[in-house]
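Hey, I'm writing a tutorial for new members on how sequence and structure tokens pair up, and I'd like a real worked example in the thread rather than a made-up one. If someone can provide the structure for the chain below, I'll link this post from the tutorial.
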Amino acid sequence: MSMTRRARGFRRASLAILTVCALATIGAAPLSRPTSVETATARELSVVRRDPLRLRAFLREMPKGGDLHNHLSGAIYAESYLRWAAEDRLCVSTTTMSIVVCNGTPGEMSAGDVFQNAAIYNQIIDAMSMRHWNAALNGHDHFFATFGKFSPVSTRTGEMLAEVTARAAAEHVSYLELMLTPDGTPARLGRSIGWDPGLVSLRERLLMAGLRETVIPQVRQRLDSAESRQRELLHCGSAAADPGCAVIVRYIAQVGRSAPREVVFAQMLAWFELAGAEPRIVSLNLVQPEDDPTAIRDFTLHMTMLDFLQRRYPRVPITLHAGELADGLVPPEALRFHVRQSVEVGHATRIGHGASIMNEDRPFALLRELAARNVLVEVALSSNEQILGGNGKQHPLEMLLKYRVPVAIVTDDMGVSRSSHTNELAKAVEDHGVDYSTLKRMVRNSIDFAFVEAPTKARLKTDLENALAVFERQHAAATTLKNNGRTRM
């Protein structure tokens, strides 16, 4: 080959490398230029971001795609739980500020009577949520304690579905992945069979005990009943149907990470089996405080269990709570590996929270790995602030975006946090300087990374793009009218 031809080949290769590098630098950013209406909408956000009231009005109308990290029991506002307690003729303990079964214990009062006592009413609402919480106190313990206070009425799944889907539709959210515990059978079977470090034999023993045959039909019946009640409450199929009827819902099955290891494995196995047989159950996740002593002790064991089971059920995607930690909450050793191990051993394709990611070993390499693997981080700003303390620059959102890690904003437990879909986007704008193009990318991520079946995802993506186009045209038109008005003056 002549030197000239060799030089031309070298130049072509160099140009190809430069092109690849440029694309890598661009990352998730769109290659096409923004349209004029998108530019006008972005300009409006840059103006209203300095006005909290106008910002929330702007974001309330913005199409938000999906909410991928939403605990159903924590999504319900305390007022609803208290109203259901009154309907079920339950009581409130004024000692613990909890909903309880009436048994004549001193300090009890009828839940119905609470509505006639403003002082007790407000105290119970505050106890079952983060309303009026003093940020200088222990938000972590108060947050997680709320779930036990409303547990007697957190079984009304149909009513709960109606509330969260109606609220989602009102805030222009079209898709929900709701975390719940579908059935108690796996926990009971796990306890009865006990622990066996040989996971192959433990799986066989659980299946031989009827885990699959028992759990799957029970869960289907429960989901059918709950969704039927939801449709009844929202008047779905009638002229008076609530917009919440159109919100697509899928479920993520919860595994209690603070439970004994035999229970954890039994739940994991059951939910892998369930997700393979029931299309409404799309994944599983480890829940309960990540700093719980059992969760800390067994973290690597849990990842090993997931590795073992995922190889046998490779079509079931996994999302994991990881990095819901902070300096001082746990010993430094526990901060060093949870996110990385969740991805590399636990096969997580989405990470919930990731708030302590910069405390991990080689954090910048981990950020690059998450970007290269296309692992989404589900960012829950309000709950991280309330549970872990700190806000703004203490959250790694800006670092995640800088390293092109896919991100979606989620609500986590909006009822407990006293938040909303709109408020979570507002926090991203106010506390982290997120602009319109980044918001739009995160909204798109919330559908792109959803675990919903492909045909439904394609429809959700089309609907989202159409809704965003309408939203931008409306804001561009409003901006034009304002500018014309100023010109005439």
